[in-house]
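Appendix B, record 7
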Amino acid sequence: MIEPATLRTQPAPGRGCGTCTLCCKVYDVPAAGATAGNWCPNCKPGRGCGIYEARPQQCRDFLCLWMTQDYLGPEWKPDKARFVLTMDAATRWLFVQADPGAAQAWRKEPYYGQLRRWAAAGNRPVIIFVRKFATALTAHGEAVLGEIGPEDRLVLRDLAGGRQAVEKMRINA
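Structure tokens (predicted):
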């Protein structure tokens, strides 16, 4: 299981983005005018950032798990897998940000089986996003959560029999 204590803040030896620019498509970056599911207007797909030296802080601070975790093989590189893996530091939940052009790529092997194993081993959900639409994957199955907005929070509920459920809750904005 990917543990926060082992998460690096620098690229693992030998790791680099190369021609991968998928993070430039799957995340909101308001400072760059980018919305999840669309290429950032500054991205040169397959080549890099057109404003690299002046890119927003959000981009400067970002490293996907493939970049930092050397045990993730080449099949997990986002441009190959067609999704970007990150971990939320507060909840320790694994997030999968899928390319809308390959929204079901995470369901293919070796990804699906491993994502299920990570959810079970850590007793934490894996949350898959396609744009703002979320699905929770737990050791016990899947739950469609729907669109997640800025006023929504995901919470993990313990159920009878050791089962868990992820629910979307609206907070007062």
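Remarks on this record: The first helix runs from residue 23 to 26. The radius of gyration is 16 Å.
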